[in-house]
């Protein structure tokens, strides 16, 4: 069942992407804070600080959305694999039932054929006897 572990792989990749995104956001936020510290104008300093704060906030939101989407995809995959396994099991059970039904029909048919053959041969014998009597 190596395929069933694919949902774990999807989740681990999402965790890695989440870490990379948050690290990049922290670096950008740090760079913006450095620029704010070097700014000579008070309004530019406030604007850079706000941009740094918003960058980290928005990156966090994007990372959460990405993580949730990956978890949903992994869960969906796990459900699909489980359903496919159940469908295969049901198909195998249906096939077994069909084979059992055919076997039961075969077991029931031969005695009917034998009795029909016996009846036909008995009918022929009576017809022969009747024809011999009519000739005599």
List the helices and strands and how they pair.
Elements lengths: L5 H33 L3 H94 L1
Helix pairs in contact: 1-2
Helix content: over 70%
Give unreliable regions as ranges. Answer: none
What general outline do the C-alpha atoms trace? rod-shaped
What is the total number of structural domains? 1
**Main sheet: strands, sense, barrel:** none
The secondary-structure class comes to mainly alpha
Rounded to an integer in angstroms, the radius of gyration calculated over CA atoms is: 40 Å
Residue share in β-strands? under 5%
Explain what this protein looks like in three dimensions:
- The chain has 136 residues and is mainly α.
- The chain has one domain.
- It is built from 2 helices and no strands.
- Helix 1 runs antiparallel to helix 2.
- The longest helix is centred in the middle third of the chain and has 94 residues.
- The protein starts with 5 loop residues before the first helix and ends with a helix.
Keywords:
rod-shaped; 2 helices; mainly alpha; about 140 residues
Task: Summarize the model shown.
The chain has 136 residues and is an all-alpha fold.
